[in-house]
Specification:
By secondary structure, this protein is an all-alpha fold. Helices cover 96% and strands 0% of the residues. It has one helix and no strands.
């Protein structure tokens, strides 16, 4: 009986670790997307300011 409960516990831990890894990958992807968006908008603003400075 103990062997079965230990196996179930290990199986749950493995599933949890897999879910955590998938969640971490999702968070990393969203953070990279947000950083790219912020960089692009900041670059656009700076470019517009440089163009306006010329006139």
């Amino acid at each position: 009986m103990t062997a079965r409960s230990a196996t179930k516990t290990n199986h749950r831990k493995h599933q949890s670790a897999t879910a955590d890894a998938a969640g971490l990958a999702t968070v990393i992807a969203l953070n990279l997307t947000n950083m790219a968006t912020v960089m692009a908008s900041s670059a656009t603003v700076l470019l517009c300011l440089l163009i306006a400075k010329r006139f």
